[in-house]
Specification:
Strands 3, 4, 5, 6, 7, 8, 9 and 10 form an 8-stranded mixed sheet that branches. The protein is of the alpha/beta class and 315 residues long. The N terminus is likely disordered. 39% of the residues lie in helices and 18% in strands. The chain has 3 domains: 62 residues, Arc Repressor Mutant, subunit A (Orthogonal Bundle); 127 residues, Periplasmic binding protein-like II (D-Maltodextrin-Binding Protein, domain 2); 105 residues, D-Maltodextrin-Binding Protein, domain 2 (3-Layer(aba) Sandwich).
């Protein structure tokens, strides 16, 4: 790997194993858990991370005797490290498809907001009708998702509904109700009840860095409902962190039902002024043109999401 910012244009001696260590630690925030998942000892994992940080020119993690946390540089680099590991999986699948032409691959990219359990409900009939097709899922940030479809690295994408890019076709996928997570304060009322979007408490809404589509989707929702949205000036790395921050009193949050933890005890349904449940809608994204050289199994999936999947996803 070449480090473009280095005047000597030196080659980075970064190993995939080191990147895997960093991603696992970012997700677990525990050296013990990350090492166990990676099948490595804690000293080996720690040394690998030190080497990676030296190559990248900055600390990815803050380490104390009590906790591990991502640095701002680590938060910036994590999506790129995750994407690189995903590319390796794609390379392995592409090589397998070349050596075994009868085995086909369908590549679906998804925003982190997408609930895979919901999507899987729609895939059963397609899998049964196409047993020689392996479905490869890839979690992508929104800009990367569209670029990969445009360049042929993905066959289909799933994202929260927004205006369609040029040259792209969109089809409705499913809907997910929204929940309001109030900011935890001393003496908070924990009773679960609906929250109206036009009369929410005066607390900033915690979001992610925007790459998953959450921020923009909330901005469009509040504008459509004639409500005022105040975003928290910082951002959380994950939906789990968003929940934790509401419990710590940092701010409030709005999340789709599928992204709430099973243990959440404070979230209440978000409603419009008329009492109607508010929700996010999600859509399939694909190239608008049906090219003559498009593989048969890809065309079959397009037909599947046009005709069969809608009823399964919204059941």
């Amino acid at each position: 790997m070449r480090y473009a910012g280095c005047q000597s244009d030196r080659v980075l001696a970064v190993k995939l194993r080191q990147i895997d260590y960093a991603v696992r630690l970012a997700h677990t925030l525990s050296f013990r858990k990350a090492a166990a998942e990676a099948g490595a000892t804690q000293p080996t994992l720690s040394n690998g991370l030190v080497q990676l940080e030296e190559e990248l020119g900055g600390r990815l993690f803050d380490r104390t005797t009590r906790e591990v946390s991502l640095t701002p540089f680590g938060q910036h680099m994590l999506p790129f490290l995750e994407a690189l590991l995903g590319d390796v999986d794609e390379i392995e699948k592409a090589a397998s498809a070349w050596h075994n032409p009868a085995h086909k691959i369908l590549r679906i990219g998804m925003s982190p907001l997408i609930d895979l359990k919901t999507v899987e409900r729609a895939l059963g009939p397609y899998r049964q009708a196409n047993p020689n097709v392996s479905i490869l899922f890839k979690e992508c940030l929104l800009d990367d998702l569209i670029e990969r479809i445009q360049t042929g690295k993905l066959d289909f994408g799933l994202r929260v509904t927004e205006p369609a890019p040029d040259g792209m076709q969109v089809l409705p996928a499913y809907r997910d109700p929204l929940f309001y997570l109030p900011r935890e304060t001393k003496g908070s009322d924990h009773s679960l009840h609906p929250w109206q979007i036009n009369s929410l408490p005066d607390a900033p809404i915690i979001c992610t860095n925007g790459a998953c589509g959450l921020n923009a989707a909330l901005e469009r929702l509040f504008e459509a409902e004639g409500a005022c949205l105040t975003l928290y000036p910082g951002y959380a790395l994950s939906y789990h962190v968003i929940e934790e921050w509401t419990e710590l009193g940092v701010g409030a949050a709005i999340l789709p039902a599928a992204k709430l933890s099973a243990t959440n005890m404070t979230a209440g349904p978000l409603e419009g002024p008329d009492g109607q449940a508010l929700e996010f809608s999600y859509e399939w994204v694909m190239k608008s043109a049906r090219l003559a050289n498009t593989p048969t199994h890809v065309n079959a999936f397009r037909q599947h999401i046009e005709t069969i999947a809608p009823a399964l996803l919204n059941s």
